[in-house]
Every structure is written in C-alpha cells, then in structure tokens.
Amino acid sequence: MMLGLLLARAGVPVLVLEKHADFLRDFRGDTIHPSTLEIMHELGLLAEFLRRPHQEARSLGAQIGEDFLEVADFTHLPTHCRFLALMPQWDFLDFVAEQGRRYPSFRLMTRAEVTGLVEERGRISGVRVETPQGHLTVRADLVVGADGRHSTVRRQAGLAIDDLGAPMDVLWMRLSRRPDDPAQTLGRIDAGRVLVMLNREDYWQCAYVIAKGGYAEVQQRGLPAFRDEIARLAPYLRDRTDELRDWDDVKLLSVAVDRLRIWHRPGLLCIGDAAHAMSPIGGVGINLAIQDAVAAANILAQPLLRGVVSPDDLSAVQRRRQFPTKATQALQVLVQNRVIRRVLGARRTIRAPLLLRLLSRWGYFRRFPARIVGLGFRPEHVKTPARA
Prior knowledge:
Blueprint: H1 2-9, E1 14-17, E2 31-32, H2 34-42, H3 46-50, E3 55-57, E4 59-64, E5 67-73, E6 84-86, H4 89-100, E7 106-109, E8 113-120, E9 123-131, E10 134-139, E11 143-145, H5 152-157, E12 161-163, E13 168-176, E14 186-190, E15 193-199, E16 203-211, H6 215-221, H7 223-233, E17 251-253, E18 258-260, E19 264-265, E20 268-270, H8 285-306, H9 311-345, H10 354-361, H11 367-374
Parallel strand pairs: 1-7, 4-14, 11-20
Antiparallel strand pairs: 2-6, 3-6, 4-5, 8-9, 9-10, 12-18, 13-16, 13-17, 14-15, 15-16, 19-20
Helix pairs in contact: 1-4, 1-8, 6-7, 8-9
C-alpha cells in the first residue's frame, strides 16, 4: 500500500490488489515506528495522520524476574516524532489508501486474490486474480509481491528461501485494560514464561511466547492453567483472564525468520515479509517493510515512468535493503538463541542480564536499542518527486 502511494504520487499507474473486502481484521503488529512517522512528515501527511486515534510510547520496559528495567528511550531520536505510535493496522492501511486515492494513477481493488503469475518469454508479465465476478488476468510492467510470510507470489515464482530458524511461537490474545493499569508498553519475563503487553488504551494486546511447536502441550494443560500462567506474570490481570473463554480467543503465530536469496525475477520483485520474514522481537517487521517500499519507489519510479524496468533496477532494490535486513535478522536470531531460548528453558526465577541492567541504570545507553527499534540500520527517505 505504501509503495502504491509513493509510485502514484510520482505519476506511475498503480493497481493494489487486496484479497479481503476491507482491512478490518485482527492484525498482530500495530506499531508505527519513528522512521515511518518521518516518512509521513516527508510526505506532508504527519499532522493529518496523528489526528487518527493512537497511543504513543516514548520508552519500552521489561519486568524480568523481580526487576523492572527500562531498556529503550525514544525521546532522543533525530526525528520529528520521538515515540512509537500504536494504531490499529486497519486504520493505518485505510489512511494510506485514502491518500493514494488523491492521485488519478492509484487504484485499489479489494476482494481480488492473486492465485498465480503470468510468465511470457522468461519474464513475469502479470498475475491471475480471483474475484467474486470471476477470473481476471492483470498485465503489468512490474509485479510486486508484498503478500507476507506465506507469500503466494514468491511461491509461484519459485524463489529460493534461506530459513534462519526460530525457537519460539507466539500466542496472541486481548484482555481488557483498566484506567489504573500500568500505562507502559512492556514485556514480562520469568522462568519459562514471556508475556509482551501492548497498551491499546481500552485493551491489552498480549503476546505469550512459547517454545516452537509447543501449542498442543499448552492446550493439553488446559485453559485454566493457561489463564493462571498469565496471571502469575501480570497479577493485576487475574480478575479478567476469564475473558479468554475458549481456545478460539487465542491465536497462534508460527514464528519464522527467513529471507529470499534473490528477491526478484525479470518483471517481479518481492518486498516486506514476502522477501524476509521477521521475528516479532522488537516489532520491527512493519518498519522493515515500509523502508523496503520507500527504497523501491526511490529506485523504480523513473524506470517505471519510462516503461522499462531492468533486472539491474530490481537488483538495486535488493542491494539497498539487504544489509538492514541481514543485520536486523542477525540481531533477532541472537536474542532468540541467547535470551528467549534460555528463558523458555529456565526452571527457576531468573535475573536480568548485566547488559540490560546497565541499559536501565545509565539513560544514555538506552538510546542505542531505541535507535535500532525506532529507525533501523538504514532509514530510508522519500526521494520520489510529487506530481499533481
């Protein structure tokens, strides 16, 4: 959606295909990072965007055993917005679509599911689409697969994937939030248990981390035992864990960390999770996807306006975004293996690692994780021209 907006703004005819009728679904990652807010500023949309209902997190903390630690401070970032914005992803997508419609070359088609690629003379020249009205073939100078970690586009294109592995899965749920609850977005970590809580004003979006493939064992222990686990980590939630009425209220996210070896073929490019599935650690998947879109628009707008996108143009997008992708995933895998795996395997109360205690004690050092989470390793900036 962001790539569609940027290309249409530059005068490129764009069709965005969305298989659902709207965006009103229960997304998991609802964090809008300072780097994305900076993009909104560069587009002249920030003030309007921030009028949408949202919450702002200027720091991130964690309760580890008996210790509460503040681990990231966004208030020193060199951006116009020095906070994480928490906004339902459907509101974010609706906003971007609304801005895209201001341009005559932007078109959004909903209830249109891509089921296959059209290939002619070794080049991807379009997609096959199923709609309520029947089958449709869309021709295009460039097909961009931005359809997530289970991407139909990348599977149909036969692009090779390197799986970096993940020792965990995540159970997502929501529990009501009360005015006297702590306001801060945080993680709660103790022996064998990890709970991340995102403040969504009237409810908590909760992520309960389990060992990879361990959901069946959690279910076997029973829902009352699962409710007790949550209450032990966050005691003030004890009187509302019965809001989890059955297992349908708990959604499993099978965590994957992988990336394509080559993100493109002639006439086709993958970005976001379709190119590199990210771990939920740091909540940076959306951040990486938006940055991919900005880089792709910067590099491809002029070739698309000329009607000729070469393999070198597509390769340039991967070269631009490969370093931040690899660096971020390397850090995520390090945290997964050195921290999460050990916590999930622990059998007694744990203590925060020395590094995190130092981060919490000296405020200056909290700027480093804030920069990695808030901006990433290579922040992108809008360079595409705006056309009337």
